[in-house]
Prior knowledge:
Layout lengths: L1 H5 L2 H4 L8 H17 L3 H12 L5 H14 L4 H27 L17 H10 L2 H7 L2 H11 L17 H9 L14 H22 L9 H14 L16 H9 L7 E2 L14 E2 L16 H4 L4 E5 L12 H8 L4 E7 L2 E6 L8
Parallel strand pairs: 1-2, 1-3
Antiparallel strand pairs: 3-5, 4-5
Amino acid sequence: MTIGFLFYPTIVTNHVNQIHWEYWALPYVVAAVYFYNEHRFGPFALFAVLAMTGQESSPLTVAAFGIYGAICRRPAKWILTPILMALVYGVLVFKVAIPHFAGDRGYVVAHYFGDLGNTPGEFIKTCLTQPWRPLGQVWNLDRAIYLLQLLQPLLWILPLCAPEFVLVLPSLGINLIVNEPGFRVIAWHYNPTVGALLCVATLFGIRQLVKRCDGRWGWLPGTFGLAFAVCALCISSWMLWFNLNDYQARPDGDALRKAESLVPPHKSILSPITMMARFADRPIVLPLMQFDPRHVMSDLWSREKLYTLDYIILDGNERRFSMEVITRDIVMSFYTNSNYVLIFNEDNVFVFRRRESVLLTP
């Protein structure tokens, strides 16, 4: 089961995907489950608090421990403490931290909720008072495929055989309800908590299933057989996260390296999003999406500032995000701009240099 966990698609993808904050909370979530199961209240409370630091929606997962405790008939402290901690932490995040740091922009990811609410509070209220509305969004083909991809490596039903499945519901429910399809991409950063808790529920589900069926159905594999099947299915699900193209050199790789070498230190840069790490030590490096109002998640800069950056690298081969594909209009807007000179043009990669530097501030 350890091998199966490490090769479960949403877990193993942590090693090949970009690093996001949710990943850091993964060991804390699993540790909280462990200490809860071991009836060690102090360590559980500590790791539950640490688990909530992973993402602003993580308090919902911690609150689920209270429901889990009620199902397991635990003493009151095991039921009330997780719920109270989640409420306090949620208020701190949404009423203090986000308003302080986000300012006028507010909680920008609220647009994922669609017409279910403009704030997390409205979203939760809609789910509680009008449950048929979020349920209506769940009944779509992409959600069904997503669930199959999650459950197939776990023999489909094993996570459902144990009460620990209730711990999965908050993070899984969010991924199913929100409009943004990125939440339902297996090899993406919205799924580590879902995957880890599904694996935990599977571990308990195997035990429950074998216990209930022992002596009734002789054809049912025992504990080892079920665990082995899960391990084999997790390993064989590599196509959900492994893409050989990610490790092959791009045809325009030499041109991009030449473009990088043309940019001196301490100059502001418009960079392709796939080259951002190359310029991470520069004072100002921005992707084109930073100037595009269609990207509501971006800390948007005014369009005028786009034409004050010192160096412009335009990769016409970029296909990662369709809205950011370099168009002829973008290239020509710099080519015809008297403040810029084209200094590089190779393999559909263009570099423009501004004739005079301008001091920039966000």
